[in-house]
Amino acid sequence: MKRVSILVVILMMAFSVNAFAKIGVLNFQEVLKQSEAGKEVYNKLQTQADEYDKKLSDLGNEIKVVQDEYAQKESIYKEETKEKKRTEIQRMIRSFNTSKEDYTKELKRLEMRHLKKVQDEVMKIVTDLGKELGYEVILEVQNSAVLYMADSVDITDNVIKRYNKVYKQGK
């Protein structure tokens, strides 16, 4: 009877050890904010966005100049000239709106392309880290609906350090 009790206790301990998986949690947004590659991607996108904003600002200023000119001279313009100026202003506004939409789409496309590259690189690091450290599951905080996590399962800083190391070696 004593042997059976000891065997049951040993089996229960063995099953309880295996019942708990080693779980890690990664905050990909933090990797993007803090890693060198993520900062570089952000700076590239910001530079491109600033360039597009400058172009839109220039177009907006051109429209304003033409609108101001029209407002000042409207009373002396012939009806035919008024119609031409209004048509020109409308064309300029349509061009502005089209450019704005195009720039927005282009920025989104660039963002997706750069983020995909970073995500692929981070996934390789996470996979290697998971295997190396014996994690059975690694969750991403934003997409996994993690309601609570202990600090001990957060591997974000570890991933950032490794990613920075890999990124520096690749340069």
Topology:
Layout: H1 2-19, E1 23-26, H2 28-34, H3 36-73, H4 79-133, E2 137-140, H5 156-170
Helix pairs in contact: 2-3, 2-5, 3-4
CATH topology: Protein Binding, DinI Protein, Chain A
Radius of gyration, in Å, reads 30 Å
For the record, what is the CATH homologous superfamily label? Skp domain
Strand order of the largest sheet: 1-2
Structure description:
By secondary structure, this protein is mainly alpha-helical. The chain has one domain: Skp domain (Protein Binding, DinI Protein, Chain A, 2-Layer Sandwich). 78% of the residues lie in helices and 5% in strands. It has helices at residues 2-19, 28-34, 36-73, 79-133, 156-170; strands at 23-26, 137-140. The protein has a two-stranded parallel sheet with strand order 1-2. Helix 2 (28-34) packs across helix 3, helix 2 packs across helix 5 and helix 3 (36-73) packs antiparallel against helix 4. The N and C termini lie far apart (67 Å).
Keywords:
mainly alpha; two-stranded parallel sheet; 5% strand
What is shown here, in short?
By secondary structure, the chain is mostly helical. It contains 5 helices and 2 strands.
